[in-house]
Structures are given as C-alpha cells and as structure tokens.
Design a protein that fits this description.
This protein is α+β, with helices and mostly antiparallel strands. It has helices spanning 28-53, 60-88, 106-113, 119-128, 135-140, and strands spanning 7-14, 17-24, 89-91, 96-98, 101-102, 197-199.
Amino acid sequence: MVTLSKTHKTTVQIGEVLLNVRVMRLTFEQSERHRREMDAIDQLTKRQVHELTSAETMTSDALRDLQALHAREDQETEQTVRTAIETYVTVEPNQLKVDGREMTTGKDLLDCFGTEPRLAIDLMYAIASGSSMSARVGKASGSPSDSTRSSGALDASGPAVDGPRPGTAANGAAPAGTPVSEAAMAETDPPSSGSTATLN
C-alpha cells in the first residue's frame, strides 16, 4: 500500500541555500484553477511581447497607454502568484532565519526573497505538480512508471511530484519583471537534516 500526505516536499534555492518546502496536494478544482492561471500568464506574456515589438511605430500617447495597460496586467499577475504561494506553500521548520525570525510560510519567502529571480516560478511549478505521484511511487503501487499524471500548466510533460524537471521551459510564462518571469531550475538535493541557515 502506498501512503501519501496532503503535502509533498520539494526544494527551492535562495542564493546558496537549498530550502525544504512543503506544497499542498491540490484538489481537482484547485488544480484546474491553478492550471488556468498558469495558462493565462503564459498567454498574457506572449501577447505583451507581441505588442511591444510594434512599440517603435506607436505614437507617444499609444505607447503610454500600452505601458499603463501592461503595468496593470503585471500587478494582477503578481497578485495571482502571491495568492497561490501564500495559500499552498509552507517552509519546513528549523532551516532558515532572517534577522532572528524563522521563515515558515510562502508569504515569508516572498516578503524576504521576492527579488530572487527563480524562486516564484519554482514554487508555481511545484504547486502545479502537487497532486501527481512520482514514477518511483507509481512503481511501488504497481502502476507503470509512465502513468504519472502531470498538472503542469504548459504541457503534458510537466514536472512530477518531486518538483521542476531540468529544462522546464518558462520563458514566456510571465511578464518580464514579474515574480515568475525566469525559467524554472532543475531540482537539487535537499540540505542535510537539521541544518539551519541564517541570512542577514
């Protein structure tokens, strides 16, 4: 029998620190909502890039209006990302303190490390994979290794439960300058058990 938890563990990197985090396994409704949000971010970015390619031919008024529109859309994207991470992500205890305060939630990570270029996209892909079973677990339960269901937003070959895969394409997954505008990185090994990092 395979026993699963309502959360799964993955790692994210903040500077030189590898951090163990817990991500909720999504319900069907939560998974579909998250998939739609990721798709919307992808489509928005593609549209914005296309619009900016014609910026040189725009009048100053038209360009100003376009920039204002993009700014509003970027704010909405940032709020979508923040809501997802704050809702679904927690930090495993006894790992990281900032100015003596332990980091325990997704909100803590965004508030203290929101400028880390890959943090938000790593977490968004980890959330998207939150209801999948890895090939290793699938084999233990007697299921074929290729039966892993991915809830990745961009294609059916998205990451499995253990986190983003190497080479996951996130270019165009979010507007430039937003928290999810960088490519997802490959998952790395977690830090040694019981280690605590202190960042100043």
